[in-house]
Write a structure and sequence with these properties.
About 45% of the residues lie in helices and about 15% in strands. By secondary structure, the chain is α/β, with parallel strands linked by helices. Helix 2 (about 25-35) links the parallel strand 1 (about 20) and strand 2 (about 40). Helix 2 (about 25-35) packs across helix 4 and helix 5 (about 95-105) packs across helix 6 (about 120-130). The protein binds 3-methyl-2-oxobutanoic acid.
Length: about 280
């Protein structure tokens, strides 16, 4: 069954949890889809985990389209949400609609995600009016990392908590179908989840959000530049991959790989005719 913005809403209404992961390529998306993951986010975190940047600022529309289309080919059932990169929507409502449209047409997204509250409500409204579902993103919004002064938990004092709640209501009114809450205290996320009628998807926001999302390299132990407190490792694939690379190298050096079963044969007469 294809997951849609409607099935996301139904899950919240029925009290069923939504599972999302990030992915950036066809084969990973296919595995997640086969596992039954409800939604795949082609996050601009690809700047960190795929392209090796320090932050998400340099990620381009072309990067998002390229990886979005690859994921969309692998995700038969999961809802594919593609991130709008830095400065693809902040500049104007017009830019926001044009770029969201490109992510749908060229990146084959089912929905787009953008960061921010009240200040980007006009963009959200215009994109929704163009028939494109929008996921919001509040709390620690990585495109504003330089304004925050680093990776810090958001909404901890009264003013910040109130602002986050107001931003959540503002973007809900503008039309988002779901809101990612990143790095916010669990109690605050619970309150936002209760006050919104659309689903909340938490990452470092406690267990009471309507769904959860993780960057897949973090949960599989494939990325160790930094590991936030909220990450749980469900496997240690980085260690397993490094061991496999080493075993391969050793077998190549020793001539143990490729063995006969990995090689192709040819008729003896053909080879003999060559001399
Ligand atoms: O880019 C991303 O991976 C994200 C998630 C952390 C929610 O926005």
């Amino acid at each position: 069954m294809k997951h849609t913005v409607t099935t996301f809403q139904k899950a919240k209404d029925e009290g069923k949890k939504i599972s999302m992961l990030t992915a950036y390529d066809y084969s990973t998306a296919s595995l997640m889809d086969a596992a039954g993951i409800h939604g795949i986010l082609v996050g601009d975190s690809l700047g960190n985990v795929i392209l090796g940047y320090e932050d998400t600022i340099s990620v381009t529309m072309e990067d998002m389209i390229h990886h979005g289309a690859a994921v969309a080919r692998g995700a038969k059932n999961a809802l594919v949400v593609v991130d709008m990169p830095f400065m693809s929507y902040q500049t104007s409502v017009y830019d926001a609609v044009v770029n969201a449209g490109r992510l749908m047409k060229e990146g084959r997204a089912n929905a787009v995600k953008l960061e921010g509250g009240q200040s980007v409500a006009p963009q959200i409204q215009a994109i929704c009016q163009a028939g494109i579902p929008v996921m919001g993103h509040l709390g620690l919004t990585p495109q504003s990392i330089h304004a925050f002064g680093g990776h810090k938990v958001q909404g901890r004092d009264e003013a910040a908590a109130r602002k986050l709640l107001e931003d959540a209501k503002a973007i809900e009114a503008a039309g988002v179908f779901a809101v990612v809450l990143e790095c916010v205290p669990a109690e605050l996320a619970r309150r936002v989840t209760k006050e919104l009628s659309v689903p909340t998807i938490g990452i470092g926001a406690g267990a009471d959000c309507d769904g959860q999302i993780l960057v897949y390299q973090d949960m599989l132990g494939l990325f160790s530049d930094f590991t936030p407190k909220f990450v749980k490792r469900f496997a240690e694939l980085g260690t397993a991959m490094q061991a496999a690379f080493q075993a391969y190298m050793e077998e190549v050096e020793q001539g143990a790989f490729p063995a006969k079963e990995h090689s192709y044969g040819i008729a003896k007469e053909v080879i003999e005719k060559l001399y």
